[in-house]
Design brief:
231 residues; 9 helices; 37% helix; alpha+beta; two-stranded parallel ribbon; 13% strand
């Protein structure tokens, strides 16, 4: 018999096969923003709206004409430090997206690229959890995700992403000048982008195995990511 006192919100959630998920997410974050615009993260959200209720600013680029046409202009303001035409949509006094009406996105089919590509599974992939006080609902969701591993390579890659997150967090000097302190989300995404530096092929059969890169090697990978993002 089910435990009547059990909290269903504590139940584990299937995050999918890690290897397949990694391929998909890298196809989104590993390409320029304009190219990724036609892609979206296939997150099994269910009824969860944590990312819509956690005081998050939503970036909208000037090419996102459909999203901009469905969001009242008074809700938008210029994105600090971004090129002309890039805007942000804020949140209300409860930290909720103003487009969230009665617990559902009122512009779902027209939502911004930021919303389409957001995937909170980047946190468990990197062994991280949101620590900001207003990200509590996302943190609760993150604790429930459980990846499956269809191949040994998937486990090795998962360990490499976690190792990358630990390595970069301990060495903020690796970041470009002026980058500031990374948010938890930025650190998780960067760990995914540079995790290949923490892998090597061993033996005659080229078995994927963990590697311990030199600091200079990781810096090269971070610079590569920065240059790609700037293009």
């Amino acid at each position: 018999m089910p435990d009547p006192d059990a909290d269903p919100d504590d139940a584990e959630l299937d995050a999918g096969d890690f290897g397949s998920w990694l391929t998909g997410i890298m196809g989104i974050i590993g390409v320029p923003r304009e190219v990724a615009g036609g892609h979206g993260s296939d997150v099994p959200c269910g009824t969860c709206t944590a990312c819509c209720t956690s005081s998050q600013f939503v970036h909208i680029a000037p090419d996102e004409s459909d999203a901009l046409a469905h969001i009242p202009g008074e809700l938008l303001f210029a994105a600090p430090g971004a090129p002309r035409g890039h805007v942000l949509m804020g949140y209300d006094e409860q930290g909720r997206c103003p487009m969230l009406i009665e617990g559902a996105c009122s512009i779902y089919e027209h939502r911004p690229r930021t919303c389409r590509t957001y995937d909170c599974r980047v946190f468990p992939a990197a062994g991280l959890e949101p620590t900001e006080p207003d990200k509590g609902e996302i943190a609760q969701r993150v604790r429930r995700w459980r990846f499956r591993f269809a191949t040994p390579d998937g486990r090795v890659r998962r360990a490499a992403v976690g190792a990358a997150a630990v390595f970069v967090r301990a060495r903020p000097e690796l970041l470009p000048e002026g980058a500031g302190v990374l948010t938890d989300t930025q650190l998780a995404v960067l760990a995914l982008e540079v995790h290949e530096a923490f892998l090597q092929r061993d033996g005659d059969d080229g078995t994927l195995a963990p590697a311990t890169p030199r600091t200079a090697e990781v810096r090269v990978e971070i610079d590569r990511v920065r240059r790609r993002r700037d293009t």
